[in-house]
Amino acid sequence: MNQSGPFQEDQVGLLAREMQQVQDTAASQGDLRRELIADVRQATAREVSAARLADPDDAVRRWVEECTREEIRRSRREARASGTPALTGSDEEIVQYALAAVLGLGELESLRHMEGVEDIAINGPGEVYVFRRGRWEPVATTFGSEEELLELINRAIAPTGRQVSPLEPIADAVLPGGDRINVVTRPCARPSPVIGIRVRSREPITFLDMVTVRQVGYRSRPEWEIPDYTRLAQAGAMLNGLAATFLHMAVVAGLNVLVVGPTGVGKTTMLSALGGLIPADRRVVVIEDTPELRMRWTEDGRPGNCIYFLTRLRGLEGTAAITQADLVRAALRQRPDALTLGEARGGEILDLLKALATGHRNGLTSIHAEGVEEVPIRIKQMFQEAELRVGITNEVVAQWIAHAFHLVVSLGLFEGRRYVREILEFSGTVEGEQPSRQVLFRRNPDQGELEWTGMRMARERLLEASGLSFQTIVDLANATRP
Question: Is 408 found in the same domain as 264?
Fold first, then answer.
């Protein structure tokens, strides 16, 4: 039995004081470095033109190096004279830190030059990911505050004439060196700011690279686990075990799912549930008019590489509106693995369909419609708000839908009870003015549950590409058949 005594309490207190002293020292050193960087930055701005800072040559770098060394000497002289803490660390390490802060993106510079990095994702000041070797990886880099991060980014993109702020919450620019950057900040992003940097390849790709595996370590498919829904399902729920298994497989495989139904049937609830199944190693962007969807947050409150973009109405003071179409275009520059549009209502549907039809996966959205038969006419009405210069025929609309979406979940409401009417598959072709489709699951009105219709998927290969098989559904159906 452990007993505490004065000695043990003194030891605990001593340890706590030592830890606090370490933290205070680190904070003091951080303040000293920030002051030094501010002085170097001001001196550099006085001596070097904005054009040269946008593309610094060796002469500019040498000037910043010498300026930093002089500021280090001055800072340490003043510390000795006043008896206050002095800068620690080698001069060379501080110089390299200053070069990155003044001429680059500070701590992000090391990430930009990390081997194999293709993209950098900053989800607010407390969460940074890099995309390399075919997956997103969290890194330890963080920033002190939203303001500090925005100051860094605005300084980096200043030579392009762009700045990001609550009045102009979306910005696209090209950083020195050719890396593309997209920034979305409050009030249109949660957390804020959300920053995506597409890192330009430092090595040219040769024809030989096209026929060899240049980067090793790519996983064949994401890690996932599908529960035994047939054991968990209860009578009266919206989904039975068989349908739940199929939808979970579809999300893991990256299929694009459209949820349809009238007001109040639970479209948002279904989107949230499906979005929560997206594997954790995929980057998710959610676009909404009002914050309703909550798909993924870590236990410590971080977004878990799932970011939320919100529209903004035109302000009385003249600030421009930020539409869903604006946010869809911004989202596509954030390298999303999964794109969710809370509800498609207008011209943004064109940008969404373009993205999904050209290879983006895990697309989730909803449309207000009584049933799947109304989807083409509803989308055609939305097209009319997309400022198209040419007319769009019903056949063209059907082709867009057939290529963009894989599945439809049709919802209904009866005597206050929400239910799933059907789960349908778009086969990828068109019949007349409708995308060809087949019903995979249909609600049995007598039993009040979904039943597999016996139809197999027309595009089973979409499941097979992720190591899944529709045969699993066939086997479960046979095993659970009375």
Answer: yes
Same domain, yes or no, for 255 and 397?
yes
Nearest 5°: the CA angle 296, 299, 302 is 60
Q: What is the CATH number of the domain that holds 270?
A: 3.40.50.300
Is 401 exposed, middle or buried (CB count within 10 Å of its CB: 0-12, 13-18, 19+)? buried
pLDDT computed for residue 209 by the predictor: 60
Beta strands in 372-481 (DSSP E): 407-414, 417-431, 434-444, 449-452
Residue 324 lies in a domain: no
Model confidence pLDDT, tens digit, residues 315-327: 766 778 899 989 9
Distance CA 303, CA 284 (A): 10
Number of structural domains found in the chain: 2
Percent of the chain predicted with pLDDT > 70: 86
Q: Which residue has the higher pLDDT, 169 or 18?
A: 169
Asked if residue 98 is part of any domain, the answer here is yes
Per residue in 450-467, pLDDT (tens digit) is 999 999 999 999 999 999
Q: Which of 39, 72, 103 represents a domain boundary (last residue)?
A: 103
Indicate the SS3 state at residue 173: strand
CA dist 67 to 43, 58, 86, 95, 375, Å? 8, 14, 18, 9, 64
